[in-house]
Design a protein that fits this description.
Number of strands: 4
Structural class: alpha+beta
Order of helices and strands: HHHEEEE
Shape: extended
Helix content: 40-55%
Number of domains: 2
Number of helices: 3
């Protein structure tokens, strides 16, 4: 039986460290091996990591949406600015994208990032 061990926190850590799919696989395999576990029991392939990352991002987006719907604020502030951010494709190193931040009360929600141009 294969074990689903990739949590939202682990996905966030891999994204925050800007690890590629290949680097993510390498780090996860090394970690599992260092813990003395059988690698065959864990879904560690680039396609598995990508699929799980996508699922976890969708789950997080749904949770943010539900939280926002349950707690509709009277006033919100919308912030946006065009920025050069790391490209989503490997062909370009930087591209202009539009990060959007909605803040209300003590909370901030970031929606990133529509490609401009």
């Amino acid at each position: 039986m294969r074990k689903d061990f990739i949590t939202p926190k682990l996905v966030a850590a891999l994204v925050r460290c800007q690890l590629s799919m290949g680097d993510s696989v390498f780090v996860l395999e090394a970690t599992i091996d260092a813990l003395g576990c059988n690698i065959d029991k864990f879904p560690i392939r680039k396609s598995s990591i990508q699929r799980i990352r996508t699922e976890k991002r969708k789950e997080r987006a749904e949770n943010i949406k539900i939280d926002f719907q349950n707690e509709v604020p009277d006033v919100v502030t919308l912030h946006w600015v065009g920025k050069l951010l790391p490209a989503l494709s490997a062909r370009k190193s930087k591209e202009e994208r539009l990060p959007i931040v909605i803040s209300y009360g003590l909370k901030k929600r970031t929606h990133c990032c529509a490609k401009t141009g």
